[in-house]
Structure formats: structure tokens, C-alpha cells
Amino acid sequence: MKKTAIEPFFATLQAANPEPETELEYSTPFELLAAVLLSAQATDVGVNKATRKLFPVANTPQAILDLGLDGLEDYIKTIGLYRSKAKHLMEACRMLIERHGGEVPRTRAELEALPGVGRKTANVVLNVAFGEATMAVDTHIFRVSNRTGLAPGKTPLEVELKLEKRVPPAYRLHAHHWLILHGRYVCVARKPMCWKCAVAPWCDYKPKTPAP
Q1: Fewest CB within a 10 Å sphere: which of 100, 172, 187, 210?
Q2: Half-sphere exposure of 95 toward its Cβ, with a 13 Å CA cutoff?
């Protein structure tokens, strides 16, 4: 994608959705951290179904620990890989209490030190909970960045670093949400819906998918 195309590409996404938000349901930084940790290789819809039952009962590190591993598993067993996620979440809660007074830390290094929290999860928490202009590269962003020519790369980290260089500062805070939503609903994996894509004029993908 030519550099001159990047500004109108993001201006168009912004005009359609000025204040994009995560589709995960949360009301505190800890709820967000827990939801993102549970969302690996699972849909936001599936995670929300589980956390709607879990969070009214346990939405702090101590409350999750009080449930015990079996109790936690009961609430999240509809989510894929729930056993390993339950272990990670319990261990993360223990570390949050021991190291951070039960609060979610605000640095990438401290977040990534928590079990089950990788770079992408840390980026989501920093962006959504704390308003930092990070790029959490998931499968949707990886696909859209490569397919459109916005930030081609062979690994999520390569795409992330390229996005940080190429996305204009004015759009950086919300860029990862615009790209996720675009990949989830328009620039879908099997066949992108180019005929209804607002940013098609600036995208390198060829040949564009015709209307069905």
C-alpha cells in the first residue's frame, strides 16, 4: 500500500466508526485481562457467554482464587482449552495479589510476566484499559495488514512493528480495533467482501472479489 493511501484508508474507517470498542464485555482492567486471557483461540461471543456467569460471582483476583480451580473450570468449560486457561488465570491471580496488590500492572513487562499473557494480550490491556496506542496483532489484523499491503510481514511481531511505523499518529489509538472489526466482518478469511468494502480503493488486494 502506498504511503499516500494510508491516511484516507484510516480516515474512512474512522468516519464509519469514530469510537471503536472491544467486543469483549468487561467493567474493570482485571475483568478485561481475564477476558482476553480466556479469548485465545476462542470467539469473543463465546468468552462473553462464560464471563456473564463468572464475573457476577468472581471478578477480582482474590475472588477467582476463592473459587478454586474446579470452581473456575465449571464457569469457563464452554471455552476451548478451558483447563489450561483456568490454570493460567489462577496463577495470574496469585501473582497479581503477591506482586501488585491485586491490581493490573500498567507496563508490558509486568503484564507479560503473568502466566497465559503474551505480547498480544498485554497490548490489548494496555490499549483498552489504559489508553496506550499499542497494536495487538491477532489473526484478523495479521490477515488484513498483509492482504491490503498496509503492513506486510511474516510474523505477528513484524506486522506489529510495521504498523507502528506506518499508521499515522492520529489513528494509532484505535487502529487495532478498526483492523480487527474490518477483518472480522468485511475482509474475512475465505473470501473478502470487496464489493462492500469502504477502503477497497486504497487496498492492494487483487483481483477484488465481485458481488455475489
Answers
A1: 210
A2: 16
Q: Confirm whether pTM is higher than 0.70.
A: yes
Q: Measuring CA to CA, which residue among 19, 17, 23, 72 is closest to residue 43?
A: 23
d(CA 131, CA 174): 9
Quick: pLDDT tens for 118-136.
999 999 999 999 999 999 9
Q: Which residues are catalytic?
A: 120, 138
User: Are 64 and 58 a contacting pair, CB within 8 Å?
Assistant: yes
| Terminal C-alpha separation, the chain | 26
The answer, yes or no, to whether the previous bond of 207 is cis (omega within 30 of 0) is yes
* Residue 166 to residue 164: CA distance in whole angstroms: 6
Running DSSP on this structure, what letter comes out for residue 211? P
